[in-house]
Amino acid sequence: MSTTGGTEDGERWIRRFHPSPASRVKLVCLAHAGGSANFYLQLSALLAPEVEVLAIQYPGRQDRWHEPVVADIGTLADRITAALRPWTGEPLALFGHSMGAVLGFEVARRLEAGPGRPPLALFASGRRAPSRTRDDRVHLLDDDDLVAEIEALQGTAPGALADPELRALVLPGVRADYRAIETYRCPPGATVATPVTVLIGDRDPRVDVAEAEAWSEHTTAATGLRVFPGGGHFYLADAWEEIAERIRQDLALRPAAAPGHPG
Questions:
Q1: pTM as predicted
Q2: Catalytic position from the list 23, 36, 98, 125
Q3: CATH code given to domain 8-135+187-252
Q4: Neighbours of 45 (CB within 10 A)
Q5: What is the pLDDT of residues 117-146, one digit of tens each?
């Protein structure tokens, strides 16, 4: 595993599992609530060397467990964007799952404001459009109910968080992420000029097709939707190869050489 090696922010925030200096595009990957950079290890292997994954590691988990958690989408987006600034001289795209999809949208907004190149594409996985809010309060549940929620979405194996010491390490980051996404409110009329591809499972209890299609309201560019049959919230576990191929196909349509926004 490698980091950017360029800045302290890059070393803290970005994980490079398969460094590919000659890659045509860098794909910035943002995990779900409670997730970590390692969630994208398999995708990184499938895309390398043509597309290099820059997986974002949130504070408060794995090798950053000792750092204070961040429970606000805007603050996370600001810090991630700052860590990505050294990379904005070359083509970047964004992939986010669940909470990471909204975070990707907010990072795209900040990257588009410059300096540097705007993103080539945003892949929004397992998440309804940013303006489609619900009165979810998972972050207020007690530990047992929070673990039950995670297991119900198949975000972890049943019983994996039974150990009290492991819970003490993992749950603060999970709770902070849920608080961040559940208290997030999309600025009225917020859009990006980045093309958006939406990916969902057809059995996902967190997003339906209408909510996914509403992503078209948040970009002035093209949108696409891919629904995976039989897939729940973590449909990705059985679909990484197809996802990687969709990413390759979409990015092949985005001119990567010229500065300014891709056509």
A1: 0.89
A2: 98
A3: 3.40.50.1820
A4: 13
A5: 899 999 999 999 999 987 777 766 777 788
